[in-house]
């Protein structure tokens, strides 16, 4: 079975698998490869479809599509309990926690990279204090 559509691969996005084509909004992954950064930008498996290996297939296909065993992915704190075991299964490494990055009072966890590696911006004291950066 071909796990990715040709048009999705050409556009750099992976959004539907053949057996789940009618559930594109329930099961999706979006990847970014702009030459400077390889990132899994979003990953979603609706609760009704979990426990079937769909998340594993999405990450495996994303890794293959990006041609990178360690792409960057960021995870909001409320998703950590359900997603971190899957990421660890693939050898992803939690490298940083940023508080207040996207939402006030919330943390975003970076796997396989940091804000500096993602943006090319050097992490300085000012950046650390403004983002309330905590390395794991």
Structure description:
By secondary structure, the chain is α+β, with helices and mostly antiparallel strands. It has 2 domains: 1-69, no CATH class; 72-136, no CATH class. 30% of the residues lie in helices and 26% in strands. The chain contains 5 helices and 7 strands. It has a 7-stranded mixed β-sheet with strand order 1-2-3-4-6-5-7. Residues 1-24 and 121-136 have low confidence and may be disordered.
What's the SSE blueprint?
Blueprint: H1 6-11, E1 13-14, E2 27-33, E3 38-45, H2 54-66, E4 72-76, H3 80-89, E5 94-99, E6 107-111, H4 115-119, H5 125-131, E7 133-135
Parallel strand pairs: 3-4
Antiparallel strand pairs: 1-2, 2-3, 4-6, 5-6, 5-7
């Amino acid at each position: 079975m071909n796990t990715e559509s040709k048009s999705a691969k050409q556009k750099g996005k992976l959004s539907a698998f053949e057996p789940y084509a009618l559930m594109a909004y329930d099961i999706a992954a979006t990847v970014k490869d702009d030459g400077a950064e390889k990132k899994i930008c979003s990953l979603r498996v609706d609760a009704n479809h979990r426990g079937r290996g769909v998340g594993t297939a999405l990450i495996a296909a994303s890794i293959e599509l990006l041609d990178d065993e360690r792409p960057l992915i960021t995870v909001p704190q409320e998703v950590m309990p359900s997603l971190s075991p899957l990421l660890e299964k693939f050898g992803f490494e939690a490298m940083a926690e940023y508080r207040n990055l996207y939402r006030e009072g919330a943390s975003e966890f970076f796997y396989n990279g940091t804000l500096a590696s993602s943006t090319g911006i050097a992490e300085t004291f000012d950046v650390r204090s403004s983002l309330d950066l905590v390395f794991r």
